Amino acid sequence: MLIYFLRHGETEYNRLGIVQGSGVDTDLNETGRAQAQAFFETYREMNFQLMVCSALKRSRQTLDPFLETGIPLIENPDINEIGWGDHEGKSSTPERTKVYEWMVNEWKNANYKASLPNGETAENLALRLNRFIDWLKTKPADRLLVCTHGRTLRALITLLKGLELSEMEATRHANTGCYVVELQDGRFHITMENSTAHLMNAGIL
Question: Which one of 18, 31, 192, 198 is CB 3.0 to 4.6 Å from 42, fit for a cystine?
Fold first, then answer.
């Protein structure tokens, strides 16, 4: 099984630096739609048999060009973005940045129960992502396309590599950045990381 994982296209909140998370359901902006189209033009011949997105619009909208080709799509909320709690819908401030940096440092030190105020913990994110991974293994398809979110993608790729979540900051995630993962004999192998070649080919990046 080959699985293509990508982060959704740009939203206006991305452009403005406003926190989204699982509680803010934004649409792709013009750049995000162009990114999604560029991804489609590059990967349209991959013969995906199944697509999976989160339950948030920006994830599904990134896959819209493929929907027109008749590929089935499943929404799975287990790959929703992490909940950022009180920070959602707000711009960064020095105070919020300080709290965020504290939380990330806690995660680096394996305190996965840390979260932003009223937000989701890394521990809970890992629980639902491990559930998603087990679900993914049951799909009778050879080539899948999965669209998710920045922090979720960081954690997911880290888990697929067999690493601890404390290392997830090393995983990059550009808008529509693509990871290719091969599932063979029950083990995952990463063969491409955060590729944005489709954006360069389209003159977007």
Answer: 198
Q: How far is Cα 10 from Cα 36, in angstroms, rounded to an integer?
A: 9
Compute how many other C-beta atoms are within 10 angstroms of the C-beta atom of residue 75: 14
| Radius of gyration for the chain, computed over Cα atoms and rounded to the nearest angstrom | 16
List pLDDT tens digits, range 106-121: 999 999 999 999 999 9
Q: Alpha helices of the chain — where are they, by DSSP H?
A: 12-16, 30-43, 57-62, 64-67, 94-108, 122-136, 150-160, 197-201
Considering its fold, how many domains does the chain have in total?
Answer: 1
pLDDT of residue 185: 86
Assigned domain for 151 exists: yes
Q: What is the DSSP letter of 41?
A: H
Q: Which residues of the chain have pLDDT under 50?
A: none
In a domain, 1, yes or no: no
Cβ-contact 126, 152 below 8 angstroms: no
Residue 94 CA, distance from chain mean position: 26
Beta-bridge partners for 204: none
Residues of the domain holding 154? 6-201
